[in-house]
Design a protein that fits this description.
Blueprint lengths: L8 E9 L10 E4 L5 E3 L5 E6 L5 E6 L6 E5 L5 E5 L9 E2 L7 H4 L7 E2 L1 H17 L1
Parallel strand pairs: 1-7
Antiparallel strand pairs: 1-4, 2-3, 2-5, 5-6, 8-9
Length: 132
């Protein structure tokens, strides 16, 4: 009788902003050349289970940041810092049409925002909805 087993590897770590050192919520992490991947949580942490043998290349990216390729040689925890991609999302302009105030009873804010500010705003909104 022959028993064939495949060891399962776990690739885990934390994704942060290279400048602010803040965790990057929603950063995508995937093993290059496969469909395996995951998303960083509110603490920037991720974990991927794989049957791939080491070394593997992991692609890490997020909106407003440059994508990093990292060679993973073993199951040690990764610490990945992403640099802001100034060229792709330098400025966002949010505009809106005002509905009759008696219906909405809410103020309208129109502003310009950098990608880092936008990412932080999205992170805060997600954390509020995630906490319930």
């Amino acid at each position: 009788m022959t028993v064939v087993g495949f060891a399962q590897s776990i690739i885990s770590g934390k994704v942060t902003d290279a400048v602010t050192k803040e965790p990057i919520l929603g950063a995508s992490v995937s093993i290059k050349g496969t469909v395996l991947g995951g998303v960083a949580d509110g603490s920037g942490k991720f974990s991927i289970k794989s049957k791939q043998s080491f070394p593997v290349t992991v692609s890490v990216g997020a909106i407003g940041f440059l994508t990093e390729l990292v060679e993973v040689k073993d199951e040690s925890s990764l610490s990945i810092s992403l640099k802001e991609n100034i060229g792709t999302l330098a400025e966002v302009t949010v505009t809106g049409n005002r509905v009759e105030e008696s219906l909405t009873k809410a103020s309208t804010t129109i502003e310009n925002s950098t990608s880092a500010r936008l990412h932080n705003q999205l992170r805060r909104m997600f954390m509020v909805s995630y906490k319930g």
